[in-house]
């Protein structure tokens, strides 16, 4: 991992992010519809008021090795902000290399700088490799059912 650097995503890396998202969806056995994500990501990440924050792992040759995205949310019960880890994905050769820990250190600093006391996320129950990693990082499981409801009345994949 010595030649891999975790850094904020740049606008010219968005097509590479699209490729990583395709791989990530396949890894999670989930659907992924391409429908203008690059332009929407551009606005969400680099607009006047960014609502999405992203990082990529880049090797010495400029190849993307993985990505992480997060948002800031607000907890009603705790009346405090928290960071929500939306996506974390590493290409297979980089899993177990320490790169996941490097991403989490970035996320910890990002969350702390924004006054967040914690980070929350979810993962598919069959992501045993990820679950093991999260537990080794000190995360605790919070059992809940996950729901999705599209505002147009169609159920999301």
From TrEMBL:
Gene Ontology terms for molecular function: N-acetyltransferase activity
Domain N-acetyltransferase: 4-157
Keywords associated with the record: Acyltransferase, Transferase
InterPro entries: Acyl_CoA_acyltransferase, Diverse_Substrate_AcTransf, GNAT_dom
The protein's name in its UniProt record: GNAT family N-acetyltransferase
Lineage: Bacteria, Bacillati, Actinomycetota, Actinomycetes, Pseudonocardiales
């Amino acid at each position: 991992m010595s030649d891999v650097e975790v850094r904020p995503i740049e606008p010219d890396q968005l097509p590479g992010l699209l490729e990583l998202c395709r791989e990530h969806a396949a890894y999670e056995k989930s659907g992924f519809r391409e429908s203008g994500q690059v332009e929407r990501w551009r606005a969400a990440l680099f607009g006047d008021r960014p609502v999405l924050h992203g990082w990529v792992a880049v090797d010495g040759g400029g190849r993307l090795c993985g990505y992480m995205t997060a948002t800031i949310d607000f907890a009603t019960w705790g009346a405090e902000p928290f960071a929500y880890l939306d996506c974390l994905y590493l290409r297979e050769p980089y899993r177990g290399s320490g790169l996941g820990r490097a991403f989490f250190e970035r996320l910890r600093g990002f969350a702390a700088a924004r006054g967040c006391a914690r980070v929350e996320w979810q993962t598919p129950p069959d992501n045993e490799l990820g679950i093991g990693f999260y537990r080794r990082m000190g995360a605790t499981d919070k059992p809940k059912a996950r729901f999705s409801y599209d505002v147009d009345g169609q159920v999301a994949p």
